[in-house]
Amino acid sequence: MLGIIISYFDMIEGSKTLLTYPDNLALTENQFHQINKLLDVIFEKSFFIHRFDFSNTANYYTEIPSKWARGGHESILISILISFTENPENWKEPLEELIAHIEQTPDIYKAFYYFTSSSDPKVAKKFQELKDLIKNFYESIPETITIQRIVKLFIFGLDRAGKTSLTKRVSENIYEQTSPTLWLNVHNFQFQNFQFVCFDVGGQQQFRSFWTNYLHNSEALIFVVDGSTPERFPEAKIELWKILQSSHNGLPLLVLNNKADLAGHVKNEKIIAALALNNLNRSWHIVATSAKSGQGINEAFNWVAEQLKRR
Ligand SMILES: Nc1nc2c(ncn2[C@@H]2O[C@H](COP(=O)(O)OP(=O)(O)OP(=O)(O)O)[C@@H](O)[C@H]2O)c(=O)[nH]1
Ligand SMILES: [Mg+2]
Fold it and tell me: For the chain, what are the domain ranges?
């Protein structure tokens, strides 16, 4: 979770932010505004997910009975900002619980008049109560609330295939210049209900003999191919099959046909033939990806997640 925003409906100014936790959420005014605006389009008490370009949000809209509001209730929206690798559905129950706590707090509607009547001590007190509730909620939810399993993934492939770039894309949603991996990088990130620990090995010749050391305990194999360099497919095939022969047959294999944004990039069928994937005796899948544009990444890791759920 990255933070919480409570939006409410002000009679004069319309939908706006009442409070956030933590106080210093790194959003622009426009981004706050976009979240507040969700209040204008939802009219039923409900949980819903909304994806903005800056973040995913898990939201709950509700109406709190109010003696001061014209319609007899305050319209409020609680939005949780979450990273795109987290499953927003996991927030439904915690949010319902939070709403129940808010509703059970006597006269909590007064908190929504903080900006119009902050000099009223009753209002200031209720605002503080609401703030404390949100703070406790935020702090009581351990990082691991949505994590069911820690899973080790082994990512391998020839040098320059894009292993490190892809791992950065899926874990941090960034694409930046990389340098060749010397030995190994370990990336830790959450994806859906999994905590993935990715062993991203260096693909240069001198590191390949160490690969099998890091296979141990992996639950899925991810082989990355630079789909724009067909002249290297035979070499890729040799390295892939070496690992397949030293790994457990039950481990699923995901092949990433990377650099799909480049002109010379080949279709998946070419890779299937070049790597002899049809000879495989295990669950496998191929996806055309681009670490640069983000294409295919979600599909690819969703497939891994689906495989892991079945085991
Ligand atoms: N156009 C394009 N370039 C990419 C893509 N993915 C990676 N690259 C570039 O390819 C080069 C190698 O990428 P890395 O991610 O370092 O490759 P690697 O497989 O980790 O390489 P080693 O660590 O040496 O094994 C870098 O210059 C990347 O910017 C992609 O999807 N599209
Ligand atoms: Mg690398």
Answer: 3-145, 147-309
Q: Give the CB-side neighbour count of residue 237, counting CA atoms within 13 A.
A: 17
Task: Please give the structure tokens belonging to residue 41.
Answer: 């389009």
Query: Which percentage of the chain shows pLDDT scores above 90?
Result: 74
Which own/partner contact pairs does 167-173 have at CB distance under 8 Å and 24+ positions apart?
Answer: 167/198, 167/200, 168/291, 169/291, 169/294, 169/297, 170/85, 170/297, 170/300, 170/301, 171/85, 171/196, 171/198, 173/83, 173/84, 173/294
Asked if residue 158 has its Cβ within 6 Å of ligand 1, the reply is no
Query: Which helix (H) or strand (E) element contains residue 79?
Result: strand 73-82
CATH of domain 147-309: 3.40.50.300
For ligand 1, atom 1: residue with the closest CA: 259
Ligand 1 contacts CB of residue 295 (under 6 A): no
C-beta of 36 in contact with ligand 1 (< 6 A): no
Find the 158 Cα to ligand 2 centroid distance in Å.
9
Instruction: State pTM to two decimals.
Output: 0.63
pLDDT digits (tens, 9 = 90+) for 14-46: 999 999 999 888 899 999 999 999 999 888 899
The ligand with the least distance to the CA atom of 258 is 1
